[in-house]
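Fold Annotation — chain and its backbone
Next Lines — sequence and tokenised fold

***
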Amino acid sequence: MRLLLLEDDVILGEGLRDFLRSEGHLVDWLNCLRDARSQVHEAYDALLVDWQLPDGSGLDWIHALRRQGDVRPIIMLTARDRVEDRVKGLNVGADDYLVKPFDPDELVARLHAIRRRTAGGHGGLLHLGLVTLDLNARGVWWRDEAGVDARVELTAREWTVLEALAVRAGRIVSKSDLEQLMLGSDGEVSSNVLEVHVANLRRKLGRSLIDTVRGLGYRINSPEA
């Protein structure tokens, strides 16, 4: 998943960013609302938001996003542990609420739960023709001519591209969105690196799995089985 982490505590922010990246997520860490407002329109799968920030309230920002029609999952990360605070955060628009200090493994588990919900209720499994993805275990299997499912090893970037297309099956995902998902806002991507990863995925999982929509992007064209 590509995540926006909005946290002003340097130690916590750096620690969460590094841990989530080690778990295979792409993380943009910001420490103020001003930067978040300018970057939130990028292709994030979920937002992780602190309540108290140097230049305002993360809770108010979440409320504004919801009023603007933003439906992406949001998890609040805050030291406010009173029941009334939890109720207020969830009522304003947060999908989940995690009280500091928390175990990073619990945050990852909650992100997995969000992915299961956004994947359409398939328990983390997506079936795309001969290909099966386990979104929780980050595993991919391909069914051969004998009907045997064999695990396919993917690089981190190949997985990122495949996951982004699979959870949006039937919809076109733009080249720029896929490039952002591969590297986040801190990186650079050469002009043909996405094409290389798509070519590798077709070689490993079948050429018919990913369709090129000229001038627009890519699309998974195998229906959910």
Summary: The helical segments are 10-22, 33-39, 58-67, 83-92, 104-118, 156-166, 175-183, 193-205. The two ends are 23 Å apart (CA to CA). The chain has eight helices and 14 strands.
